[in-house]
Amino acid sequence: MIKVALDAMGGDHAPKAIVEGAILAAKESQGKYGIILTGPEGVIKDTLASFGYNGEGMEIFHAPDIVTMEDSPTVALKTKQNSGLVTCVGLQKAGKVQASVSAGNSGAMMAACLMVLGRVGNMPRPAIACDVPSFGRNVTLLDCGANVDEKAPTLVHFGICGSIYAETMLGISNPKVGLLNMGEEEKKGTEVLQEAHQLLKQAPINFVGNVEGRDIMLGEVDVIVTGGYTGNVVLKLMEGFYEYHLKTFGKIDSPQGRKFHEDWDYSNRGGAMLLGLKGTGLITHGRANAKVIKNALDLAYRLANSQVSEKIAAKLSQVA
Amino acid sequence: MIKVALDAMGGDHAPKAIVEGAILAAKESQGKYGIILTGPEGVIKDTLASFGYNGEGMEIFHAPDIVTMEDSPTVALKTKQNSGLVTCVGLQKAGKVQASVSAGNSGAMMAACLMVLGRVGNMPRPAIACDVPSFGRNVTLLDCGANVDEKAPTLVHFGICGSIYAETMLGISNPKVGLLNMGEEEKKGTEVLQEAHQLLKQAPINFVGNVEGRDIMLGEVDVIVTGGYTGNVVLKLMEGFYEYHLKTFGKIDSPQGRKFHEDWDYSNRGGAMLLGLKGTGLITHGRANAKVIKNALDLAYRLANSQVSEKIAAKLSQVA
């Protein structure tokens, strides 16, 4: 049975929201997958008890160290090996679990996944892939901030990762992959984008050409490739737009409004997937509540169960 | 008296919407500035007549060539010197007008402004600056797509241009300038962003540090600096949001809704300003209607009247 390790101490509302989310997931998944909570055993037991949960479908792995939001990734990795964050990845490396989830220090979680699990392909770091709302469809955007100053072949690897994710997990046959640019013509954009455009045309994916910012919202592609800097700006701008909207209109209680909130509320999504790892890693929102954690655990299980990382590794080994 | 030259043949709805916008501006401005329509004289006269306008406050400069959306900027500049687009800039160089506006081929308009008027500072091209909606304030974003692969000093020049614009035109004293990045810390982002951060700290502006995508919507800065690629993506994403919103909710007829539409409808804004020119150039939306054109003419007049380009030139001459 697939097991998912969850860092019980990561996130603004840890351990309460994290443990509550794990209980939700254990109840709803009805034994489809196992959950291992990593962190200080006493704290986790007390928190489980506070919810009156008997611990069914859940294990605890004692890891007393605490990674804070201020810890640098390297410090966390070196000096806090017995933390919930590092051990949730270490258990995967040891074959005890098949996926790892943390809502804690995202730089440290990225470093743990990269250094402990290792990467596939030639991306300097695994890409952060996020599903974002678009009119009438889902768009998978990557990289949302793991890499900077990417070379063109790295952007091609992003495209392959996104394509395999969309095909495997979202059931989209031959997903349309677009390169985020500042014009439709091949010769638009930075030198790297122009080179990437040519390489993407040769890649074993359904590359449909350049797309623009408007196409994130209203386009016809399934996967959008960009560098980590621009992807991070886009993702956070979209979060900001939703907050702006809530401040302006509150929750709109109409059929369109409910659909809008369903699509835009980040807590309906599991979090940011690290694609290009030898394994399955998920970084969820620091502000994650129990619902986010439950969705993250489900997503991590489905990623591992669908062997997305193995499929990505196989495809990336075919290209430069 | 300040005069503004307007390319009568540029834009999807030219010449009708362009001429109609010029008439609106001439009527509302009541002689505060003059307008010269550039394009084929017969066409312009007929269009003016179709609106029953007697031509008060307006001149026509005959320019029979037509720049299409498909023309490359260099071809347009070389072979279509007698077009409305090129002559509206040429008249400024000759001292006949103080500002130039086109809703036509934006690459050609950029090239005409750059080659005919010339640039100040060390930006490879003038920055495209746009005012964008933000919660409870205005944000001036630049560069929105004129430049690519900027070096760090160019980003500093963007910051200076934006700061002077916000101070002079929006009346903001000591405008807060932020660098769009993927984290608040100085060491975040691409190499160029990290270098620009250090240079911006030394620049003669009120640099408040890095801002993130969310801060475009909900931040506390007046000017946001980024490279042309990311700025273009942000601008078009925001246009896409608004279209998405209209498709989802239509026009929301409440006090908040009317404010939202007022802020987000691009036709309430004049267009994209080219900052860093020896002169005043404005590129308006290709889909511009008469209201957009009127706003663009007013904005061009105010830019020229406030001597924004002269103030930018003076400040840029003080820095590397």
Commentary on this structure:
The structure is a homodimer of 320-residue chains. With 320 residues, chain A is α/β, with parallel strands linked by helices. Chain A has two domains: 1-120 and 276-306, Isopropylmalate Dehydrogenase, CATH 3.40.718.10; 122-269, Isopropylmalate Dehydrogenase (3-Layer(aba) Sandwich), CATH 3.40.718.10. Helices cover 46% and strands 17% of the residues of chain A. Chain A is built from twelve helices and eleven strands. Chain A has helices at 16-29, 41-50, 73-79, 84-93, 106-117, 152-170, 191-202, 213-218, 228-249, 255-264, 290-305, 308-316; strands spanning 3-7, 34-39, 58-62, 99-102, 127-134, 137-142, 176-180, 206-211, 223-225, 272-275, 281-283. In chain A, strands 3-2-1-4-11-10-5-6-9-7-8 form an eleven-stranded mixed sheet, with helices on both faces. The longest helix of chain A has 22 residues, at 228-249. The interface between A and B is large, with 43 and 43 residues.
CATH topology of the largest domain in chain A: Isopropylmalate Dehydrogenase
Mean pLDDT of chain A: 96
Strand line-up in the sheet with most strands of chain A: 3-2-1-4-11-10-5-6-9-7-8
Work out the helix count of chain A. 12
Q: How many separate domains of chain A?
A: 2
Most extensive interface: A-B, 43 and 43 residues
CATH superfamily of the largest domain in chain A: Isopropylmalate Dehydrogenase
CATH class of the largest domain in chain A: Alpha Beta
- Based on CA atoms alone, the radius of gyration of chain A comes out at 19 Å
Corresponding CATH architecture of the largest domain in chain A: 3-Layer(aba) Sandwich
